[in-house]
Amino acid sequence: MTYQEQRERMVEEQIRQRGISDERLLAALRRVPRHLFVPDEVRHQAYADHPLPIGEGQTISQPYMVALTLNSLKLQGHERILEVGSGSGYQTAILAELALEVHAVERLVALLKGAQECLEKLGYWNVHWSVTDGSLGLPELAPFDGIVVSAAVPEVPQPLISQLVTGGRIVLPIGSRETQMLTEIRKVDGSLARQEIASCVFVPLIGRFGWPA
Ligand code: SAH
Fold this sequence. Notes:
- About 30% of the residues lie in helices and about 30% in strands.
- The chain is an alpha/beta fold.
């Protein structure tokens, strides 16, 4: 099977048949070549239904987790998005397809370099990269219309709430270092509406509002 065929099958069986119907999201998942975001040793598994190691002790998320996360953001195309923990850059590329502007933050410079190179080769020019502790957000570039955190947090980092527009959403895995609940937080005038999406396992966020290294 070609990579394209594997990708179409992934979207059909792992994403659409599990209830995700946003056509823009499905089209982006069909377009982005996930096999280019994983190391050679695991390339044959790029479209499998689970996370994969990407080096530095980190993982590329399972395709369905990326789909569930981005489905909750309900993007229309005009948004400025903050992504914390860009890792391989795979979800960053999907975000670049779906939003106007993506601000990707990663604490490990080697991963960020690889992700940046991959996205530039693919022609995504609406992504801005920062190496820093993403649990602090990017105050100088706030506010954001949506925020995604791809590493586990014990609680929603307060700076991220401050950097979100009213009406905007943050999607993130909240829980212990071992297991979490993927959660959508919507900022409505003066309060937060919280909705649980699915239980999940992400690597821990290491930083001021995460865990110590
Ligand atoms: N969506 C990515 C997930 C990578 S795993 C992918 O599918 O490839 C989570 C990433 O979060 C790791 O790359 C890790 O280095 C990064 N991370 C952990 N703590 C962080 C922090 N405080 N700020 C920014 N990135 C962080």
